Inverse folding.
């Protein structure tokens, strides 16, 4: 009897332990009526969402209401924001555009991309995922440090779709090599993440101090890694062709391109 | 003599009238799922000389564009152009400035009773692969039905064994970029597939 109780207690403890390993748990769904969301970035009053199907950029509130809509775009893909102003990779126009107080302008690049799919920018640096050229256009304090060629070795790309500057590094969603790659500030390869996790089209990434989070588009999953590349969690509920994601205020926002909504997951762990 | 001259004059007037006018082309493609591939291929078609006002609707799979009437190469050439860009046309409709319509439907074959049936592994990944594989099979003279299962990667066909050999149908698959157990696509043909169609070549039946 005592032995049976001990085994039961051990099993319960193991179950609780497994549940506690879940870093993000589902909280809610934000419906995006009429929007086919592809890219997401932070706005001062909610989010910026790109819709490549309809050639639009939306500013939405946290409940999904449309606040502003811009329609002078040509296949806007992944995006970023600087001082809450959106920076947009215009895939069809081979350009990076930004909107400040409603006025559109273009950001100069050291060379012309062929279908820019993702962009990130801070006060010193700019990176662009140059899809058909299989490279990362990269300027650092005005110096052109563009890197990458087509291939599947370390440092090579097969249609990169997203890119982010974080932690002093450059993170790239190497979509059709089905992995994430990490580079230093000189474009030197540091890490390859997720290559053995059977992703199919790693289209979007979001990086925090401790996590690397990637969308697995064709498998409708999101994979969460630590900075060493250890897989911590796989999210696969309520996802339908997730394209992009971001973390804000302990919440993970996942764009569902397949069914026009944002899945919101909450975390109680350090980000 | 007078009638001949008048006919020639009217023909010339008609031709001159067509210059500067555009044919409206509608191409239905299937299996569009990935926006990077779909809109990338839109970009490729945009670069073709003469084509303008091209748009693609992900939900309906309709690609529309205009081309000057005198530069329109015709249904077959448009189909080939679309194919070279990575799409598979299911139907093409051309509306001329005078309202006449030319059209082609590449999937309207009817299965024939008595034809031999076969089922074999064809490697691929997605809805776009499905369209490409089935169209490539139906284009083979003697094939009356073709249906590819995306998950199982199995192609079911009905064919007239008196007209076509099974190995020729295998070859048509690899010519389209899709490996079978009996026929392997050229590397260049495989690599020319859209990114989202690049199946794992190591997987076999």
């Amino acid at each position: 009897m005592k032995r049976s109780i001990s085994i039961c207690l051990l099993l319960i403890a193991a179950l609780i332990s497994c549940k506690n390993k879940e870093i993000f748990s589902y909280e809610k769904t934000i419906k995006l009526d009429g929007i086919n969301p592809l890219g997401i970035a932070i706005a001062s009053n909610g989010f910026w969402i790109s819709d490549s199907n309809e050639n639009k950029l939306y500013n939405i509130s946290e409940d999904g209401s449309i606040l502003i809509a811009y329609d002078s775009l040509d296949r806007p893909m992944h995006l970023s924001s600087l001082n809450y102003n959106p920076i947009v990779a215009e895939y069809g126009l081979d350009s990076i555009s930004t909107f400040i107080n409603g006025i559109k302008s273009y950001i100069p690049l050291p060379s012309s991309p062929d279908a820019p799919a993702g962009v990130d920018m801070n006060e010193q640096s700019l990176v662009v995922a140059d899809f058909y050229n299989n490279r990362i256009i990269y300027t650092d304090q005005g110096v052109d440090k563009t890197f990458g060629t087509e291939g599947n070795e370390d440092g090579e790309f097969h249609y990169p779709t997203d890119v982010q500057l974080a932690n002093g590094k450059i993170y790239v969603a190497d979509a059709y090599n089905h992995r994430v790659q990490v580079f230093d500030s000189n474009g030197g390869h540091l890490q390859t993440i997720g290559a053995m996790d059977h992703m199919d089209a790693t289209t979007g990434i979001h990086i925090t101090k401790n996590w690397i989070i990637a969308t697995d588009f064709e498998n409708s999953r999101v994979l969460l890694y630590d900075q060493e590349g250890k897989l911590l969690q796989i999210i696969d509920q309520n996802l339908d062709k997730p394209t992009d994601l971001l973390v804000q205020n302990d919440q993970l926002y996942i764009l569902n391109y397949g069914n026009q909504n944002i899945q919101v997951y909450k975390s109680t762990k350090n980000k | 003599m007078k009638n001949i001259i008048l006919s020639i004059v009217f023909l010339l007037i008609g031709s001159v009238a067509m210059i500067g006018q555009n044919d409206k082309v509608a191409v239905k493609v299937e299996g569009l799922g990935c926006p990077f591939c779909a809109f990338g291929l839109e970009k490729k078609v945009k670069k073709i000389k003469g084509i303008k006002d091209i748009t693609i609707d992900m939900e309906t799979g309709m690609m529309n564009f205009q081309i000057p009437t005198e530069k329109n190469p015709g249904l077959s050439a448009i189909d080939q152009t679309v194919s070279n860009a990575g799409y598979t046309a299911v139907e093409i409709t051309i509306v001329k400035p005078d309202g006449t319509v030319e059209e082609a439907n590449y999937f309207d074959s009817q299965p024939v009773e008595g034809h031999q049936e076969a089922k074999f592994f064809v490697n691929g990944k997605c809805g776009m692969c499905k369209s490409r594989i089935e169209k490539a099979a139906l284009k083979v003279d003697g094939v009356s039905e073709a249906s590819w299962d995306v998950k199982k990667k199995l192609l079911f066909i009905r064919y007239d064994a008196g007209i076509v050999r099974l190995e020729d149908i295998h070859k048509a698959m690899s010519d389209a970029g899709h490996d079978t157990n009996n026929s392997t696509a050229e590397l260049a043909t495989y690599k020319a597939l859209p990114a989202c169609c690049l199946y794992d070549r190591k997987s076999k039946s």
Q: What stands out?
A: Chain B touches chain A at residues 33-36, 39-40, 42-43, 57-59, 125-126, 195-196, 198 (CB under 8 Å). Strands of chain B lie at 22-29, 52-57, 62-68, 89-95, 101-105, 116-121, 143-149, 154-159.
